[in-house]
Structures are given as structure tokens and as C-alpha cells.
Amino acid sequence: MTDVEVLKRRIIREIDSRKQELIELCSSLIRIPSENPPGDSTEISRFIAGYLKQFGFQVDFYEPKERMYNLVAGYGRDEGKHLILCGHTDVVPAGDPFKWNFPPFSGEVKDGWILGRGASDMKGGLSGIIFAVSLLKRLNLELPGKITLAIVPDEETGGKYGVPFLLENGIIHGDGCLIAEPSSPLNPTIGQKGAFWFKLTVFGEPGHGSLSPVAGRNAIADAIKAIAKIQELWELPIPVPDEVKPIIARTKRYMKEVEKLDENYQKVLERITVNVGTISGGTKSNVIPESCTVEVDCRLPFGITHEKVAEHLHRELDGLGIRYQMETFGFRGNANFTPPDDPVCRAVIRNISSVTGEEAYGVLQWASSDARHFRAHRIPVLQYGPAHLPSIHGYNEKVAVEDVLRCAKVYALAAIDFLFSSSR
Known about the structure:
Blueprint: H1 4-17, H2 19-31, H3 42-53, E1 59-65, E2 68-76, E3 82-88, E4 109-110, E5 113-115, H4 119-138, E6 146-152, H5 163-168, E7 176-179, E8 189-192, E9 194-203, H6 219-231, H7 245-257, H8 263-266, E10 273-281, E11 291-300, H9 306-318, E12 323-333, E13 336-337, H10 343-356, E14 363-365, H11 371-376, E15 381-383, E16 398-400, H12 401-420
Parallel strand pairs: 3-6, 3-7, 7-15, 8-14
Antiparallel strand pairs: 1-2, 2-6, 4-5, 5-16, 8-13, 9-11, 9-12, 10-11
Helix pairs in contact: 1-12, 2-4, 4-12, 10-12
EC number: 3.5.1.18
Pathway: Amino-acid biosynthesis; L-lysine biosynthesis via DAP pathway; LL-2,6-diaminopimelate from (S)-tetrahydrodipicolinate (succinylase route): step 3/3
Protein name: Probable succinyl-diaminopimelate desuccinylase
């Protein structure tokens, strides 16, 4: 019978003694550009496969779209519990290199920080799960279950070629999943708001600009009326289900104590947020515009579905007497969560507290992620990863060395606890 606590202490010592290897792995991943778009993961996928193969892993490649590679590698046995550790290789574009204080794909380690695009989102976490699983294998541990690494290429654009492809084709499955997405050091994400992205095209009647508003019909003016109705979604009262009220309360505490956000920000947990992200219309100033198109990102709280939001918007827009067409694109899904007492949540939260010596608890995320796909396939999931949150998707992105080290420890210890636990 394995003494789990003795084993976990051994793992901590091994990770500390191999710290430099972990740092170099993270730096190496950052030095490989993997911006999405365009979404070419060839180089970074080959590097990761080479790293894993040197320790005896079989790595399977899946290419649902040209140059977008999913990597799947496992360790353990099919009997017993099955844990998925997931991460994505793609990063958002670096943007103007002259606005960075260092080369965007530097990977340099300086003053306790690892520097470069993707350091926090999410090559710090990606290096942590790869390192943790490879270390467990190198220690020749006989696991009572199995760990699967699922490394995907298509998260930053919300695409279908990563996690959705693997799940829908039955390539991966599990009793629990940990995604190494950026999070607060003590607060893994156990739930997300829903998302409803849509494009609204408003139609008018062209004419000479000198005769407006007498002649024709101005599509931009009608679109402005529509936008006003769309923005009223923020004021729509949403009944919060009782089952999520305790998690919302903890998340408000987190927003106040950790994020230092005032009560105004806390409202986003229980309301529909509305961002009119793009608008385009007309041909020139002296022509009455025939059409105008706006793209909108709404994030949905628990208590309402994207179907209900669409129905509400159609009623409101129909009442304006305008001609329009509404179609969805990108993210679409309802708010979702994993109960904090689920075994995978307990294993991760317990070991965050163990490694840090501080209280840890799960919170809701006011954005969306690949976690929704796992929950749609009835796989309990949460997110936890190293990050300097203010730098994500911005210039001068970085991650603290000690955060990467801490998360790698949590990944390895949580995997041990989860797999050796008898509860399913």
C-alpha cells in the first residue's frame, strides 16, 4: 500500500531539485512563436513531443485543421480513475514589437520573472503540467489510474479544433480535468459565465445625403437605436439559482479582497455584460447608408440562457420597426460550474493550501474558456495556473518563476491525491 503523504513529500523534493529544468522548459516554449491567428502549432508541437518522447511517452498527433496539432500522451493504466491535464499552445498575437520592453518571444529569465508573449497565458501553466507528468513517469511511480496530457492548438480564438475536437471524437475522456489556465495563486476557477456573441446587420434605403432624413432610411441611425436596446440587457433582472449563490458570494469576496475591485465590478457576476466591439456601415458621408453591422459580446450569468437572451432581443428590436438580421458567431454557451466538493476540485484546492500554507477556495470566472466543453461532456473541471494577471494579452507579458514552480507542485500533488483517492 502506497503511503501517499510520503510520496508527496518525495515529489516536492524532486521538483525543487529540478527547478532549473522547469524554468528552461517554460523559456523554451515562450521562445517558439505560436500566435493565433494564424494558428500554426507545428514547431511548438514538435518540440513538446520531442521533450516527452525522451522519457518514453507515446505521443499521438491529431490535425483537424492544417498545421493545428493536438497532442495526446498518457501515463498509468486504464483501470482506476482517469485525470486529464489540459493546456493550449497558442497565444494571442504579440502586436507592435516596439511597444515591448524586451523581445516578445524572449523567454529570458530576469529578476525572478520569465518574459515573453504567452508567459502567463499559458506557457507557464503548460510547462508545469508537462513537467509534472514527465516527472511522475521518471520516478517510475505505479499509478492506480491514468493521467492524460491533452495539449491543444486552438483556444485563443475559441475555435473547434482543440478541446471540442478531442472530446467530440472520443479521443480523450476522464473522471476529472485540470486546465492550467492562468488564475489567482489561491483561487482556482471552478465556473464560468456563459457567452453569446452575435452580429447584427441593420438595413436601410440609400439616397442622397442632402435629403436625409426626409429621403431614404439611414441604417446607421437605426443601428444606433438597436445598440441602445442591446445595452439595456445590463439592466435586465436575472434570478440567480440557489445552487450557485454560495459560489457567487465567495467570488465577490475574492473580487473585493484579492482583485481589489469595488462593488460595481461585482455586479458582473449577476448581470449580462454587453460590449459592442465593432461597427461598420455606409459608403461615404453624402450617401444615406444602406446597411450597418455591429458585433456584440455578451457574457451571461447563471439564471438565463443564450436562447432566452436571443428571444428577448428579437422582441425589443422588432418593436423598433427596423429591418435587421441577427446571427451568432464565436463563443456561445450558458453559465456552467463544477461543484467545489467534486473530487477533482477537492484535490486541487487541498494541495494549493498545502503548498502555500494559506486558505484556498474556488471562484467563478466572468469570462469563458475551454472548461465549458469538458462540462458539456460531463467531465468535472477547474482551472489553475501561474500568471501575472495584469500582463495577460498585453505588452510585456511575464510570469513569476516561483509561481510556475508552485503550480507544478500543485499539479503533481493533486494528480496523486485524485488518482489514489477511492471516491469517484
